[in-house]
Amino acid sequence: MNLAVFVKERRKAVKLTQPELAGKAGVGLRFIRELEQGKQTLRLDKVNQVLQLFGYEVGAVPKTYHADSETRV
Question: What domains can be seen in the chain, in order of their start residue?
């Protein structure tokens, strides 16, 4: 599941409109719309403001590589 789908599904599950979610998260309505539409460049701090309402956050996660691939640094 990608971030856009996740946020939209969580918002709908708690019965919030986009404007209500924006207000509760302290971000703009435009940001919520872009987030739910899957915009590729968003401010991580604002994404985390939204996700915090649902008990989540985005952070660095190790990428899984195949055993035969090189380790990237």
Answer: 3-52 (1.10.260.40)
